[in-house]
Prior knowledge:
InterPro entries: Aliph_Amidase/BUP (IPR050345), C-N_Hydrolase (IPR003010), C-N_Hydrolase_sf (IPR036526). Keywords: Hydrolase. This protein is of the alpha/beta class. It is 24% helix and 27% strand. The chain has five helices and 15 strands. It has helices spanning 19-35, 70-82, 161-168, 188-210, 265-274; strands spanning 5-12, 40-42, 85-95, 98-106, 112-117, 142-144, 149-152, 174-178, 182-183, 213-217, 220-223, 232-235, 239-241, 247-250, 257-264. The strands form three sheets. It has a six-stranded mixed β-sheet with strand order 5-4-3-2-1-15. Strands 6-7-8-10-13-14 form a six-stranded mixed β-sheet, with helices on one face. Helix 3 (161-168) packs parallel to helix 4. The termini are far apart. The relative contact order is 0.16.
Amino acid sequence: xxxKKYKIAVIQLNLNDIAENNLKKCISWVRDAANLGAEVxxxxxxxxxxxxxxxxxxxxxxxxxxxxSTSFIAFSALAKELGVVIIVPFFEKRMAGIYHNxxxxxxxxxxxxxxxxxxxxxxxxxxxxxxxxxxxxxxxKTIPTKKGKxxxxxxxxxxxxxxxxxxxxxxxxVLFYPTAIGWHPQEKEQYGENQHGAWMSVMKGHAxxxxxxxxxxxxxxxxxxxxxxxxxxxxxSSFIAGPQGEILAQASHDKEEILIAEVDLDLQENVRQNxxxxxxxxxxxxxxxxxxxxx
Length: 295
């Protein structure tokens, strides 16, 4: 019988350090989350390094790792030891010249339940991800695990209702969004509140429109590794929302934290019975959604 209730966690961290130290730190925090009862645990986007996409620099490709190497070996062993599911976002070297922004979904026995490659790749000031990442080619996926059905999207995917919908239609009970998003310090006073509010609103909307739980795991801290730049102030504020968009847990802007909430599948079904958005979708009228623009 599937679990009717299980606990999920997102871990909010400062990851402005070298890979070895970030790995040790994340292992420790995953242990803490499991000790608090979490059964499915997500780390933030690109956990193993500082956010290097602030510049276009070929030297940063050295931060990437092949599939099933350092990150997988470490977190596979940890998942098996703790009996938990772990979402591990990492910089994937697929082959020479092809790199992805990816995430393992590692099951409770240490096996790979699934792999997701970020589908939407941004190119904004100091978020120069198109230089590094080839768009994902695995599509939007719901991954069955021994704890529940997990959908994993990554950061910029947060802004796309199509990504959430296509993942939820495959049966996802939770949409996890490992994230690295923050303010340009010089813009924060003028635009910061609206930027952060939009980020939360769009994901809460995904929860409501799809009747799913949503969990976003962001990083914190000012990462100012480039000379003569203001860097990025990651805004934290990781959160878990329920299927009506209700906030079940929310982190601060500036502290390392673990958030835990319970997924209740009976509640989810009740919400979908009362708000039957899936039933009433006019799929016969949606053909134009695959066009770039409707001219």
